[in-house]
Write the structure tokens for this entry.
Amino acid sequence: MIEPAMSSTSCSASDFCTADTESSSISTLEQLALALGIAGLSIILILQMDQISRRILPPDRLLAKRRQEYAYAVEQCVEYSALMNRQHVGGGKSLYSPKSDSMAWEKIAKSDDAEMKALFEEILDATKAAPVIVAIEQDTEDAADSNEYYLFLAFPPGKGVSTPEAPGLYRKVRVPLVAFCEGMAKGFEGQMTSTALCFVADASSGLGSEMLTSIVEACDNGVELNMQQCPQATISNPSWMFSLALLNSKNTHNITKDQFERIIFALCRLDAWRVRESVGANRTVLFTLPGQASVPLLLPLIQKVFVHERHVLSHDGCCHSVAMGTALRQEYGSSYRQTAAREEWKLVSATPRVISSTHPIAPLRHNRELPDALAKLNSVQASIVEAWMASVDTFLDMKAQERKNFYTPFVCRMGFLMKRSGIGNGDGSDLSGLALKNVLQYITGSRSRALPSEVMEKAVACLSECRANAEAYVEKFKLAVNSPESILIEKCVFTHKSILIGEKTLLDTVQPKEDWSLKAARKLKSCMCCVPGEGDEEDEEEEDREGGSKPKEKIDMSLPGAFATGAGRSKYVDGKAGFAFDPTKFQ
């Protein structure tokens, strides 16, 4: 693997001085040139230190320098994740050989119609295991076209349709990304399924995604296979999504927006098909987008492609998100080498949270005041703030167009689940249990029926454990209200005027109650950057910005998906609506 760029400049000035004294033939002019070179190298090393850079560089150049560092860390993370995946499907640490890996892949070209068709049929065969997604990258050894992006798939060994957790010698296939996904999308469009998808986007440095995934898995509301309980199907922070986000941010090879949408559709359905035996009674696969950094690049595409599926946005205040992100960086540093101790596919294939939660991929470029505000923060804080703001900015932009894109997510405020005081509970009551029940009802599609008592008991116990772990994890990095650091962070957030529309919290945050609604009739007044105050509440629903107060048919907004009833339906089950038929009748 390529080591971080800064290591290439780790040689010291004393090395040059020693060489100078040992060479008596160097002229005075050459000695002067060497001295200037040493001085120049010293300046480069000093500028690598962010604290010095903040004093020397103007805000715009400082931000440009930092963004180069973010981009480098993201690219190295993608490469490292692909290597870990290759190692897993190549037999594990003991058997994998990087030198011979290229020869182990079956290569299918665009023109190989028969081979491509056979591959589609094999993948859609319900009696066989679907492949895992290993990587999305170019093949530098491809003589035909080194600029072509390929999808690397691996079929698990043995019988059965489930993906084994342990590494093994998989059958490996390389296919052209765009051509394969177009054909695979057509295959899934022709396949009837009762499995719903739920996508969790993050604006909390990964706290929300991790907590919701743990809770859903802890419920053990899956199906029983071979006397073993299979947990609810979850696909957490898939590395292929992070690779696609990076590819979308660069897009130097003119992959169109329509093609990206087809790629997203095909690969999400492929991954959901892979875990089809674990979907449980609720027939739901939970996807968590890989970190708040990927939200600006992935969420608009996913929402457009899966408009009738369930969508959750888990958000926290900016100061809380900075504390969580700082704790991650403290544990792992700036390294992307966040390797799971155990060689399990679910852990190996997940994007390292320390990168996806703290390094922005699509930074905000339309905010002229932001560089000056970020320059007052250290590099770690600045990167987390920018990643968080970019995620929230994307959410607000999509909500502004909800009459066109039908974006009505369950907006999950982590303050409720974390049992923080002063958030809609001025009487001191604990709203975490009710908030947990609401979000679980939405994720599992159980709005119209009660969740089993044993499921709620396990969920409450898991939430309590996750909350205690999260509080202990960030204890050293909590930012007190009105502390100098929190004030500087607030100033960064304040430069984004849209986040503070009407001095309210995030639009349509679901309030914990029995008759919860995706469209908030009341909104808390406060900014999003720190622990909000109670604020006043509005009793009237927000009217359509464009349509005004036109007479309209009454819609029950407590029903997930009711707002999107005007959109065209596909052959897939509407993941936001309750089942009107017996899902067990479908494969």
Remarks:
- The CA atoms of residues 62 and 159 lie 55 Å apart.
